[in-house]
Design brief:
8 helices; 334 residues; 28% helix; alpha+beta; 5-stranded antiparallel beta sheet; Transferase(Phosphotransferase), domain 1
């Protein structure tokens, strides 16, 4: 269960904790400072330059359901004539606070734009009156990055990834992480299922429902950071399993597991969940390296990179920036 973090500590700047339900939600419209925005459709096919905290419902059309989870549904849709993904976050009956935290955490990247990050187009806590309105925490409209995840590419395609593809995808992922970390944002759920592959073959990191904005002082400060209990246990850094505070280096550990999956085409752990987590913490359990890692010079170097990234202590792992440079050098060897 996520820790009871006050909502005001995780709200993006400029977004109030409560907004009156209206067809169009913009927090500035409910503070006595009504602003006029232009919502004219762009002739070049791009979305209009609206504030990200505004949704114009008349321009939003739901199409196919792409997936669902504990906190809601993701649809493919159309917004101002452009294909988008729409995430509807619902109130979780067992843990309403966790659902709210997941929604606000998604907005940690609302003001950011990077080619390897799924961009937030618009978001709101308001919904038009309908039977599902009572069950809604909020709606997030994001760029549509394609219908294929890295998880699907690893486990559901006839041909396994070759080393070149693994490094190319890794370069995209680490580039995105480096950008996030430069803004003191830790993703905390890096895994193949949360990496989307566009039609052009570019990887984009998505699903920021577990992310945190860390204090600007230091990514390794032991005090004052938020403890983190979410994410996926197979990719969760050992310090998080021990109950220590989250740092940027937790993402580096998760990336190491992800890179191992790309190279091996296998699942990192099997067996009882609690037993796996205990072994990771108490006995430094890590996935086993197959012969794929020993067949070539580049494979052996990738193995060394993974070993470095899943070190026990966060301080012993490379930064995302250092890791990006290493992977770039490996790409040059192909």
């Amino acid at each position: 269960m996520p820790s009871p973090i006050p909502v005001h500590r995780i709200l993006p700047k400029g977004f109030p904790a409560a907004i009156t339900l209206r067809p169009c939600s913009s927090p500035n419209q409910f503070r006595g400072k009504r602003r006029n925005f232009s919502f004219v459709k762009q002739s070049n096919g791009e979305l209009p330059q609206c504030p990200w905290y505004t949704v114009i419902w008349d321009e939003l059309k739901l199409l196919d359901l792409l997936g669902s989870g504990g906190f809601g549904w993701v649809y493919k849709g159309i917004y101002y004539g452009k294909t988008v993904a729409i995430k509807k976050v619902r109130k979780c009956t067992k843990n309403k606070l966790a659902a709210r935290q997941s929604f606000w955490a998604e907005l940690n990247v609302a003001h950011l734009a990077h080619e390897n990050i799924v961009k937030v187009v618009a978001a709101t806590t308001s919904v038009p009156a309908n039977p599902q309105a009572e069950d809604s925490v909020g709606t997030i409209i994001m760029e549509y990055a394609g219908g294929t995840s890295l998880d699907h590419r690893i486990y559901n395609c006839a041909h396994p990834l070759d080393v070149g593809e693994c490094l190319r995808f890794s370069s995209d992922i680490v580039s995105g992480l480096s950008f996030l970390h430069s803004h003191s944002i830790v993703h905390l759920d890096v895994k193949p299922a949360n990496v989307l592959i566009t039609e052009s073959g570019r990887c984009k990191i998505g699903d920021f429902g577990c992310s945190h904005k860390l204090a600007a002082t230091s990514d390794l400060t032991p005090n004052g950071q938020l403890r983190h209990l979410g994410g996926t246990y197979t990719h969760r850094a050992p310090e998080l399993l021990r109950g220590r505070n989250a740092t940027l280096k937790a993402d580096i550990y998760s990336f190491a597991i992800t890179l191992w999956q790309m190279m091996s085409g296998d699942h990192p752990f099997s067996g009882d969940r609690q037993c796996v987590m205990y072994a990771v913490v108490a006995y430094n359990l890590r996935p086993s390296f197959s012969h794929v890692f020993d067949e070539t010079l580049v494979g052996r170097k990738v193995r060394s990179v993974i070993d470095h990234c899943w070190k026990v202590e966060p301080i012993d792992r490379p930064s995302a920036e250092q890791l990006f440079e290493t992977i770039t050098n490996l790409n040059s060897l192909l």
